[in-house]
Design goal:
Number of helices: 14
Shape: globular
Distance between the termini: 11 Å
Largest sheet: 7 strands, antiparallel
CATH architecture of the largest domain: 2-Layer Sandwich
Oligomer: single chain
Strand order of the largest sheet: 15-12-14-13-17-18-16
Length: 471
């Protein structure tokens, strides 16, 4: 059993830690973007160094007090807030925001966990390099949280998830031991890969305090196009064609539905609609080219071949950086449009790429059998990750369908599982999907996860209740 933060424990902390670590438990530390959980905190601490993180965790381990790591607060599955149980220490990484080193010749940057993703990308750009992890929330998401959840984003197709961009981590383990793993090596086969164990663990096995990360050459030219396709099957065929023409230069390939643009028109009318008429399905294509390749020529060639094959019927090719930013703004504002409409049930899922058209069709049939709803299906087509979100019809709100939410989520996730997919593609498990992991997870994997948790965190102090029952 865990203990709450008590006055005696606070006195112990104040005797060991500088006064400037203590923060008021402001709402920002106790809320999450979807408003489904309200957090609690016995105390909020904002350490400025790894040694201070270690001191806090050691004190919590001795007192059996829970620790909830807090990064940018952008997580969508409740991993950053604890609603019930003994009041924990909320440990914010906001002050650990230094870029410790940048080795341009090695294509490596070493950053503390509290560095905001956009700032990290800017630091790489300043050195003539690219850090390709890109999220809609990159202006507030912090790299520690991105690694803790193995964040994805729009460039996974070409560059991989956060895990694929990490060479090593520094972390504080549940007993307060510091893991000094900031390797800059591409090859290091010296035993268990603790880096990959901590990445994606959502703070349940330790707190990532810094990371050494891969940088890449910046493309010499970028091209962006928004292309109208008749259906998701045509979108997949277009992806195959784009790779045939441009190869690995395809950096992003995003599926966008007409419903998503409808929501933008309804809630964010300042976002300019790209076409005069409505279209059911579109794809946003991003190319990153090197050398003398001209992105406009490559995209024009792609459009010509795709139109001849009946895969596209209309399109826009950005002719300037401003137009490119405008097209990406549409994609990046879709989550905000969704938030303003208010989803009944949102689903971050993945299925085998070839099964995407079948899933979208069957998913619509499943939802139609449960009532009248709107579906905004969009996402990262090239890596099989869709956001299949269900919304009320005009004139209704998500509160009107509260009683149906669980049935909708269960029906969608059952279909995903049936088709060999995952019910958490890039957002993690957090607290929202603990039951889903129990229901759909492989028993062998779950047994191994519980054994690892018990071995590293026998008292269960690290982000209690996240990922695993009793965690």
């Amino acid at each position: 059993m865990l203990n709450p933060v008590t006055d005696d424990f606070l006195q112990t902390l104040r005797a060991q830690l500088p006064a400037d670590l203590f923060r008021d438990p402001a709402p920002q530390y106790l809320e999450e973007p979807r408003g489904r959980y309200a957090g609690q905190a016995g105390v909020v601490l904002a350490p400025a160094s790894t040694d201070q993180v270690a001191a806090i965790v050691r004190a919590c381990a001795q007192a059996r007090v829970g620790v909830v790591p807090y990064g940018g607060g952008t997580g969508l599955v409740g991993g950053q807030v604890l609603s019930d149980g003994p009041a924990p220490v909320v440990l914010s990484l906001e002050r650990m925001n230094a870029v410790r080193a940048l080795h341009a010749a090695e294509n490596v940057i070493v950053a503390e966990a509290g560095v905001i993703l956009a700032d990290l990308r800017a630091a790489a750009q300043g050195a003539g390099r690219l850090f390709p992890l890109s999220l809609a929330s990159e202006g507030s998401a912090r790299i520690g949280g991105c690694l803790a959840t193995n964040a994805g984003g729009v460039n996974v197709l070409r560059y991989g998830n956060a895990r694929d961009l990490c060479l090593g981590v520094e972390a504080v383990l549940p007993d307060g031991t510091v893991l000094n793993g900031l390797s800059r090596l591409r090859k290091d086969n010296t035993g268990y890969d603790l880096r990959d164990l901590l990445i994606g663990a959502e703070g349940t096995l330790g707190i990532i305090t810094a990371a050494s990360l891969k940088l890449l050459p910046r493309p010499t030219a970028n091209g962006t196009a928004l292309l109208v396709v008749p259906d998701p099957a045509a979108a997949l065929a277009l992806l195959d064609m784009a790779r045939g023409i441009a190869g690995d230069a395809v950096s992003a390939f995003e599926l966008i539905s007409g419903v998503g643009l409808d929501f933008l028109a309804e809630t964010l009318p300042d976002i300019r609609q790209p076409f005069a008429s409505r279209h059911d399905w579109m794809v946003l294509v991003e190319l990153g080219l090197f050398g003398d390749q001209n992105p406009d020529e490559v995209l024009t060639d792609l459009y010509g071949h795709a139109a001849e094959a009946g895969l596209v019927s209309n399109g826009l090719i950005a002719q300037s950086e401003g137009q490119r930013a405008e097209l990406w703004s549409i994609r990046e504002h879709i989550p905000e449009g969704n938030r303003r409409i208010g989803s009944v049930s949102s689903h971050d899922i993945s299925v085998p790429i070839s099964a995407i058209p079948d899933f979208i069709e069957k998913g619509a049939q499943v939802i139609a059998g449960l009532g009248d709803f709107r579906i905004n299906c969009f996402g990262h087509l090239g890596d099989g990750n869709l956001h299949f979100n269900v919304f009320p019809m005009p004139g209704k709100t998500r509160a009107d369908h509260h009683a149906e939410r669980d049935a909708i989520k269960r029906a969608v996730h059952d279909l995903v599982h049936e088709m060999g997919g995952s019910v958490s593609a890039e957002h993690g498990v957090g607290r929202l999907k603990v039951e889903d992991l129990e229901r759909y997870g492989d028993p062998g994997k779950l047994s191994a996860m519980r054994a690892i948790k018990a071995a590293l965190d026998p008292a269960g102090i690290m982000n209690p209740g996240a990922v695993l029952h009793g965690g």
